[in-house]
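Build the 3D complex.
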Amino acid sequence: MLGSSLEEQKAHDTLLAWCSEVGSGETASFLASCRELGLDPWSASRDLSQLGHLEFDWHGGRFAAAPPLLTTVPGVPSRLLLCGARPHGLLERLHDAAEEGELDVIVAGAGAHQFGTGPSTVLIEGDPADAPALCEASGIRWEPAAHRRLASLLAEVTSSGVGESELPDTRFPHAPVDPLSFEVRWDWDWDDGREGLWRYRTYADPRVAYLRSGAECLRLAEVEYGPYVMDRPAYADPPISYRPSARVLVVEGKAPLPDLHARVACLCSGRVPLRQYFAVDTFEDHYVNVDSETARRIFESLGVDWGPYG
Amino acid sequence: MTSIRAWNEALLSVLLPSGPETAARMTLLSCDEKAVEAAAASLEIGPEDALAEFAASLRKHYAITTGRGVKDAAKEVGEFERASRPRPIPPFLAVLAATVLAASRMNQDERLSTLAYYQRLLDLLGVEARQGSSPLLGFRELVQGGFTALAAWLEEEESGRRGELFIPESPSPSIIGTPISQTPLRDRDRAVLGGFFGACERQLAAGFDPVLLLRRWSGRSRLTNNAYDALFDPDRCESMGAALRNSRAAWDGSFLGEDGRLRLAASLRLLIAPGRVSLRLVVPYLTQPQSAYTAEHHKVELRPYPDSAGLPTGILSEQEPLLELEGRRETIAPFKGDTLLFELGSGGLEQVPAVRSNPVWVLTRDPELLDAHSQSARHYRATLPEPWALFADLDPDELPAWSRVTEEAGASVRGAELVGGLALGDGAWLSDHPPRVICDLPEPAPLLVDGSDHGYLDPGEPLELEDLAGRAGIHTVEVAGLFRLDFELREEGLREGIGGVSRYPKDPRLGPGGAISEARDGEASGPRVAGAASFGVESEWRVPLTVTFNATAHVIYGDGRVAVLSPPEPPVWLTQVGLPEALTRWEIPDGESVAWICVVSDPHPRVIACEPVEVTASEEVLELAEWFAGEPVVGDEEAEARWRALVERASSLREAIGAG
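Done.
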């Protein structure tokens, strides 16, 4: 186990460097590298994915680094966010390209720490007008406002869209999900056929979600969709909220954003969400610098009412 | 009586075979009882008569007596050396082999020390020691000339096809050292090696060099001096390896006990009858009947293999029973431990050392097993000494872990491996994260890293190579001189397959399910996303208009609008991550329709030209034009003229309004 956030920060940076150098590989080797570095593989993989550095095909057992690119973040026109693979020498390459092209760009050596929860954020100082030339000269992709492009691709999350009709094998351990707190209630003695969101632990997947509604039972493509497609009481708070003045998207800890939605929110800053604890197991994830347009797209995609903020 | 010539031919093919495996390699005239038995077999002489027949043939051919010794054999050596080439098989080969056979029989027992070579030889030849300087007449000449002549014959007549005979330059002791050197392993060594063969069974089966393994075996110090020296003598390694392989092939499972006495291998069989269990003992070593006694002085008549002999069940009452063989130093341990396993074999229920997958019968006095199964239907009710019990058909998973053959135990030895670190593939690791080295050799193994001593590698314990961290380049690890592992530390990897896993968010089939690798994406449709990159998406981004000054700005848009803007405070999140000065540039909204930016700065008020458009002359625009009429203009070559024109328009309009 790692002792300090400094060590954890270094471990996350090393993990990204390793992934970038191998380019792609089996998820088993990714897990082994996480263990080698003393990192929790599940949280490390989610962080790397939502920051746009890596993609994971868990069913196929593969991972791949994403193409390195520069993008912009909303409200901070003086900085360019570096995403995707971060192989050895990339920053030097960007620095040299800026120097040789006499571009209005300053490439500093170190990234901004993530408090030991993810790889450092590299925000390059420069004029976005010079960014295309910089990217071309250094051989990486220029994709301004990547968060907005991805937001435009967010599909409407509905139970029929993200679920596939399938009856669960009730011999596996299973429990209902509390529609108010989203907690998996292993202590609830519900009948198997009861309507609602259910979590199963199967051999193939230790956290599978099934949504029962009437005679229909849907297996959800990702467990994260569950809180957003389940029926909830009218008085229940939505799992996400937005603070326009602070540009913070707040997500209930037990209802994490689906992967692509989380990536859209993260690319607004290059930061993993700040976790705010209220109790040992109760927390919120705060995605910073999320502009209202992006927040609206996330809300609408997840079927959460944007009205209070509009 | 078999002729010496026949013995010579038979022993030559057994001891010095010709072939690609022996050609031009160091060899020995490594004669022992097994070799004599093998040679006898080719002469159709049974193993029980082999030694006696061999000795008798020698005595007759050379007329060996206490008085004559081996004088005639020594004479034969001289004649052979002087004979014209090519010469036939050395006629004294058999008697030379006998001198080595005597060395091979040297052991540690009540009567003889390992150095009492002569007594062994005299016993073998059936003569008494001669009074005088040499116990056996002609022995010195036979040994000194015979081995040299044999070596010359192997080299000249046989052209090295049967190997090159090893003869020590300075044998010690001076005469008998030569025949002793031909047999690196003696009876005592073979007894000791039983433990070695058992401990390193997997490694030896996997083809590891027995010499290198034996050098690190903790029991090596119990070998005779000759064997020990040969083990570490580079010139004799090869022959020692051959001797070890031969010895292992002939190993019958016996080993040397802690009391220095040989324990002959044996196994139990069970005969089951209603209410009764009989124990039988099988001793593979025995070729003739042998009497033995239990600690309680019960006599047991052991029978030659493969027959079995009945054992009194009372022997189970003993903690570690031992059978004393009548008239011999060897002993037999019928069983060891509290649990004995039996499987159904051709001889009934036969003892097995461990169970792999099939149910077994279990004879036990283990309290845990007794508690677990005493009341079960599989408890075979029979009269047995307390607390023993017999259980039928217990599955492997019902037995203690030691009794099961694990996958690991069944696996062949992997040897030394590089594990951990951050592997880049293709034999390379990330420079700062080198691999660890691990080996499954049975004993601590010396480790060399890049040719330098790195201490010992404990079995199964990964060793960090942190000294190499950051040292890019090729590195070499050598474990025990057996394994050489080359690897490279690099800053860069292969970087293959970047972007090879993607999402298709608009694909109704793949969209909700997360990312998918190229090999599986099939007929994916719609835009593709890999990390932050998206492909097939329309982009409407335009370069924002940004400014770097830290002052209030009055912005004039082409449509006559005017906005007053100030540089924003840096967002808190940037300050928190140590980038409080990150906002070195700020954006002017709706930048594409901005015509002028008037900077309110005490030291440097100025007008910045943006889009060269005709500005609608609103009241606010005219006020700003008059306010900044005399300030410097920053922009293209025509910016100054455009700004003057706007100022003049403002003045004209102001005058017109004033006149109106």
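The radius of gyration of chain A is 21 Å.
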